[in-house]
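retry 2 of 3: previous attempt timed out while embedding S-adenosylmethionine. Reduced batch size to 1 and resubmitted. Inputs unchanged:
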Amino acid sequence: MSNHYYSDKPQVAHDRKAAEAVLRGISLRLVTDAGVFSKNGIDYGSRVLIDAMELPSGAHVLDVGCGYGPIGLTAAKLVPDGHVTMIDINERAVELSKENAKGNGIVNVTVLQSNLLTEVKKRDFDVILTNPPIRAGKETVHTIFEQAYDHLKVGGALWIVIQKKQGAPSAKAKLESLFTRVEEVTKDKGYRIFKALKEE
Ligand SMILES: C[S@@+](CC[C@H](N)C(=O)[O-])C[C@H]1O[C@@H](n2cnc3c(N)ncnc32)[C@H](O)[C@@H]1O
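retry 2 succeeded.
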């Protein structure tokens, strides 16, 4: 039985809810459901990441583990002249992100079901964003960091949110082993935002 939020095919009965959220001053109506992460409202860590993320105009952005879409859809609204690819292993999350893009009139997104970044062919993203699936285990999270590095252009940046108690120090060490520069951009209630830069 696969009822945890990171299964590819949740079996739990549907429990759809719609909520209005204001993110970076943008109002979004987001539908959630049982079997997806943080179904009762936007995760606090996701909010901290959304508030901190810097997106160059026209950016090509990847949201890894998009869930029902709060991070990627806000990014798409912030860069109307750019494009956001959103991926998740969970088919219910993928369908919700597609529905939420449509419901909010967002057309500059592509939503894909993908285990890790396997289905992502583009390798020159400007920005990759993730609230990583801690519950899926450290190996999954660290593989996401490795694959994110490979999918960024030189000059691009990976932004992550992670709680101190959920392994922020080891995540930072892993990022430092891959990227030339890792900055702690902000911290809020135990959540850390790290920005890892891919330089020459
Ligand atoms: C912490 S949640 C964040 C969800 C969403 N971004 C949000 O802010 O509400 C992590 C997401 O990663 C997804 N995930 C877990 N394992 C994955 C994998 N191997 N490949 C891709 N996505 C995965 C989960 O299904 C979940 O939606």
